[in-house]
Amino acid sequence: VAHGHHPRRVLLKLSGEVFGGGSIGLDPDVVSDAATQIADAVRAGVQVAVVVGGGNFFRGAELSARGMERARADYMGMLGTVMNALALQDFIEKAGVPARVQTAIAMGQVAESYIPLRAIRHLEKGRVVVFGAGAGLPYFSTDTVAAQRALETGCDELLVGKNGVDGVYTADPRKDPSAVKLDHLTYERALADGLAVVDASAFALSRDNGLTMRVFGMGKDGNITKALLGEKIGTLVSG
Ligand code: UDP
Description:
Blueprint: E1 9-14, H1 16-20, H2 28-43, E2 47-52, H3 60-65, H4 70-94, E3 99-103, E4 112-113, H5 116-124, E5 128-132, H6 142-152, E6 157-162, E7 168-169, E8 181-182, E9 184-186, H7 187-192, H8 200-209, E10 213-217, H9 223-229, E11 235-238
Helix pairs in contact: 2-4, 2-9, 6-8
Residues 15-17, 53-55, 59-61, 74, 77-78, 81, 134-135, 137-138, 140-142, 145 line the site of uridine-5'-diphosphate (UDP).
């Protein structure tokens, strides 16, 4: 990652599933809790960028399996991520930290467009930057965008917050009781074993560009702040 010395800068990926609190739409209590934890880390001196998913609204692949044209369904999915981004921005500001939303699809009344150098400037000034609308490209996922944004904005680490699991397991712990949690994992193994905790293109992009990833569970109170501050929770994934 090409950057000079600067305070710890990280990219946090939050899936839409989290924001929905288990159903379609938004659970403001969940978003507020995540926002408060992010604000705490910013006050402790960490520069925080966020990529939000949109699975609590629409997933393009699911709509397309039910008859919609895939690319159009994917645009709906991307628009869902923007709603999550606006909600997160709102609660981060209510928690006392300035926040900006930048979207990969231009919508000037709602948010800034994605401008990497401006995003870096915001981070340097202690503002949280929330990236919405994914990559602006159908057939991509917000996991892959999270790795791309982390690389382009010079983040030290990609932090992937998960619901229901506290890291990467040898198999899906909800289906296989013999699954074991891993403290460390290489990208090669993640890809070879088909571990789907993050999608394969996100693993590959991170591997090819030397970005480390930490997958952690958001179930425990304060875990988002801990991950942002650099505590070694969850599973480290690296080259
Ligand atoms: N999406 C897309 N391109 C992107 C990012 C997202 O087409 O660059 C669409 C895709 O349909 C996806 C939906 O937006 O299913 C929501 O994103 P994702 O599934 O990654 O959200 P998460 O699972 O993290 O909630």
